[in-house]
UniProtKB/TrEMBL annotation:
This is Pimeloyl-CoA dehydrogenase large subunit. It comes from Neoroseomonas terrae. The lineage of its organism: Bacteria, Pseudomonadati, Pseudomonadota, Alphaproteobacteria, Acetobacterales. Its cofactor is FAD. The keyword Disulfide bond does not apply. InterPro entries: Acyl-CoA_Oxase/DH_mid-dom, Acyl-CoA_Oxase/DH_mid-dom_sf, AcylCo_DH-like_C, AcylCo_DH/oxidase_C, AcylCoA_DH/ox_N, AcylCoA_DH/ox_N_sf, AcylCoA_DH/oxidase_NM_dom_sf, Mycobact_Acyl-CoA_DH. Keywords: FAD, Flavoprotein, Oxidoreductase. Belongs to the acyl-CoA dehydrogenase family. Residues 12-121 form the Acyl-CoA dehydrogenase/oxidase N-terminal domain. Residues 232-390 form the Acyl-CoA dehydrogenase/oxidase C-terminal domain. Residues 126-220 form the Acyl-CoA oxidase/dehydrogenase middle domain. The keyword Oxidoreductase applies. Pfam families: Acyl-CoA_dh_1, Acyl-CoA_dh_M, Acyl-CoA_dh_N. SUPFAM superfamilies: Acyl-CoA dehydrogenase C-terminal domain-like, Acyl-CoA dehydrogenase NM domain-like.
Length: 392
């Protein structure tokens, strides 16, 4: 559905991506991704390593740091073809947040130590920023790090930490001082999640899955050499990282895959509710607008700081939520069963209820309620748009 016109010379690149996807993506994995099944750690890391083997796992990183160094149009083409083929998304934190942060603000020693392991997938990272009383108001965070000699000793808790249960390392925001401005006194530390002082409490989400966690830090020791940037001044380094995360959360590739699936479902149900087709068409038009906004932001000299990042995040998450709701409507009663086991493993010995992918629809709808909260809530995005774009 979404063939954005590209320059002729990029046709060869598109064909190269298509050939790679045909040869490297196992059909069973593509089918599971397309049906919306929850993929295991092994499946996600298999695809990470496959992309790494081709040199494509970090499309936005410069080539001197092991990235693909793709242009904006090449990234768009890859996303489009990957979504169409059913390639899984990969675990994003290290590649889109930690890596760019270290490339921009890390030491040579940090880049040498961490970037290769991020690229080859030998270390999974999580992002420990939010706290029980510091979410939208992140600068009020209290998890504390005290410097003792050449180490920091960390105490406190973080919440909603995605994939902490799998993570080898985390990027932590810690309070090292207090001052007149809340933003002062925040320090970025790279933590080894195997430290005996780290413990994790799973937080099952509305769809029944375990992705989120509360993480406790009890006298966790971190070498000063694992601090990124100056002590107390981590906040200033986060600005571009947060912008990256917002653009990432729009997840245009996934939104496109979801809309393609929705269109197939509506086409297979000619008796679907009157008016549904025009709402699907409106969602497809909004997706086109979003694609253009994302490309424009990524093409700007400093994508993450572009004021469009908040608009992209807001529109992207609203679109994903709308599409997941339309999918439920399109399937009618067949979409109602709540079968998280089938979401993970597909139908086993049961007779499928309705179309093959119907069982994943309700958990998927529930899962996407989170999109307007994570990486900054929709209310906060509207505040930012009012301040930064409308100048109010
Ligand atoms: C699925 C998921 C994954 C996440 N993953 C991570 C992760 O990996 N690492 C991490 O650190 N964090 C993660 N988070 C946390 C996320 O960043 C926070 O949930 C988010 O920033 C909101 O903070 P909060 O939950 O404390 O809500 P609050 O900030 O307490 O907000 C509560 C409500 O008040 C509204 N509100 C707050 N302030 C204002 C205001 N000034 N104006 C108008 N309305 C306002 C909000 O919009 C919201 O509706 C994740 C969250 C989710 C849901």
């Amino acid at each position: 559905m979404s063939d954005v016109p590209v320059a002729d010379e990029l046709g060869g690149f598109r064909a190269e991506v298509q050939r790679f996807l045909v040869s490297a993506l196992p059909p069973e994995l593509a089918a599971r991704t397309k049906a919306g099944h929850t993929l295991s750690r092994d499946e996600l890391m298999f695809w990470h390593r496959t992309l790494h083997g081709r040199g494509w796992v970090a499309p936005g990183w410069p080539t001197e740091h092991g990235g693909a160094g793709w242009s904006i149009l090449q990234r768009h083409i890859y996303d489009e073809e990957a979504a169409r083929a059913g390639a899984p998304s990969i675990i994003p934190m290290a590649l889109t947040i930690v890596g760019p942060l270290l490339i921009a603000h890390g030491t040579d020693a940090q880049r040498t130590k961490y970037l290769p392991r991020i690229l080859d997938g030998s270390e999974i990272w999580c992002q420990a920023w939010s706290e029980p009383e510091a979410g939208s108001d992140l600068a009020s965070l209290r998890c504390h790090a005290e410097r003792i000699g050449d180490e920091y000793v960390v105490n406190g808790t973080k919440i909603w930490t995605t994939f902490a249960q799998w993570a080898d390392r985390c990027m932590l925001l810690a309070r090292t001082a207090t001052g007149d401005r809340q933003q002062f006194g925040i320090t970025i530390l790279l933590i080894d999640m195997k430290d005996p002082g780290v413990s994790i409490r799973p937080l099952p989400s509305l769809d029944g899955m375990h992705v989120l966690n509360q993480v406790y830090f009890d006298n966790v020791r971190v070498l000063v050499s694992d601090r990124v940037g100056p002590e107390d001044e981590g906040w200033g380094l986060l600005k571009s990282t947060v912008g990256h995360e917002r653009i990432l959360n729009a997840d245009v590739g996934r939104a496109r895959a979801l809309l393609d699936r929705l269109i197939r479902t509506v086409q297979a149900n000619p008796g679907a509710q009157p008016g549904l087709r025009s709402r699907v068409a409106r969602a497809a038009i909004r997706l086109r607008s979003l694609e253009v906004l994302v490309m424009r932001a990524l093409d700007s000299p400093d994508p993450a700081n572009a004021s469009g990042a908040s608009i992209i995040k807001l529109l992207g998450t609203e679109l994903q939520q709308e599409a997941s709701w339309l999918m439920s409507e399109a399937l009618g009663l067949y979409g109602l069963p709540y079968l998280p086991d089938v979401m993970q493993n597909g139908w086993q010995n049961e007779i499928p209820i309705g179309p093959d992918d119907a069982a994943t629809v309700t958990p998927f709808y529930l899962f996407w309620r989170k999109a307007s909260i994570s990486a900054g809530t929709s209310e906060i995005m509207r505040n930012l748009i009012a301040q930064q774009v409308l100048g109010r």
